[in-house]
Amino acid sequence: MPAKSVHQNGLATTNGSTVPILPQVKEAILQRVPVPEPTLPTRILRVVILLVYFWTSSIIIGTTQYIGTPLYLINKDHYYRFMAFTKQCMTLLVLSMTQWWTTTTIHVSGDESVQDQIHRLPDGHLQCNFASRMVLISNHQLYNDWIYLWWTAYINRPFNHGHVYIVLKESIMYIPLVGLGLRLAGFVFMSRNMKTDTPRLTRRLGQLTRRSNGGKGALQPMWLMMFPEGTNLSKNGRANSVKWAERQGERDLKYTLIPRSTGTYFCLKALNGTLEWVYDCTLAYDGVPEGQYGQDIFTLRSTYFERHPQAPIHMHWRRFKVSEIPLETLEDFHAWLIERWNEKETLLQEHAKTGQFPSSINQGKSITTEVKLDRWWEIWQLGAVLAPLLAGVFAVSRIFGQVRSR
């Protein structure tokens, strides 16, 4: 009888032999999502093309953002609309990379609070009709969780992918080119020190509650995306969560980390009166062995560079009225948030046992779809500003050159 397997650091030890987990998980996924194994030269070429595509597109988007910055001094409404357009371009870039360089299947479910807001279209695509203004909270499993939540804004009607604001770690702000682009896009960076974060949050949330037309118009769409756990599920994150639970006198969780409530509470207090709903998404990934963490198996490198198929993703949606969330004190809100995370634990236990979430949509079944663009040619939107501008500069230079030559 084989000895019990021990999983640690991405390896499985059985009968004294240590083997990587990833090939085992990958083989199981390939049985459901067949992907030809590329040769080494093909993999190298894919990486080169991916990097050229990403950085070229990022430069185009960044340049477009810089072109639009003077609008802030001229007309703030035009400025924010322009930046929303560039954020749509960011979405198209990320989704096109996810579609063309990997395979990502998503199973979407929800409870009765969203049963009339998630639909399968006749062509097989998924459409959501979520609120145009919300705070979106989610557990954090992998580094790329935000991609699939942003994709939800893309498939929402009305479109909201240009109005997503993600709360990120401060360190991301210092990535060359990317960090500045995310700052111009209005993303929120936090250092996990409220003395430092309070002025940043106050300023950003003030922008998210401004009304157009000099304060006389409507509030702009907004999806403020937050991960209350503060980091993704990992070995270190689990250890810190255990320590935090002990200090707070709370029960630690197995499938999630203990959420930190201060930042989320601050945001909801500041936004209270300007939005009606908090949407909650619970994320789970197939193929993660017991005692292991998805971030060690399904990395950005394995997904995009090596084309290991992404594990099928499960999303379970629900929503809560802001007016029914206790915001009188931080302690009251923390108790509410802990209760929601205990409910997530129950959902994730169900997924671990059955491979799916319970669902009140689609006649009790989840809706299966893929992460991809609605139309491949949408990617040309990236050059919608820069291309005509460059063409105009070229035409003027040609005319000027002809005049000078006479």
Q: Short summary of the structure?
A:
The chain has 13 helices and 13 strands.
Report helical residue fraction.
40-55%
Unreliable stretches covering 5 or more consecutive residues = 1-21
Kindly state the number of beta strands. Answer: 13
Distance between the termini: 93 Å
- Gyration radius (Cα, Å) is 23 Å
Mean pLDDT: 84
Topology order in helix (H) and strand (E) letters: EEEHHHHEEEEHEHEHEHHEHHEHEH
**Number of helical segments?**
13
Tell me about the biggest sheet?
A: 8 strands, mixed
Q: How does the helix and strand content classify structurally?
A: alpha/beta
Instruction: Characterize the overall form.
Output: globular
Strand content: 15-25%
- The strand line-up of the biggest sheet is 9-8-10-7-11-12-4-13
What tags apply to this protein structure?
transmembrane; 13 helices; eight-stranded mixed beta sheet; alpha/beta; 406 residues
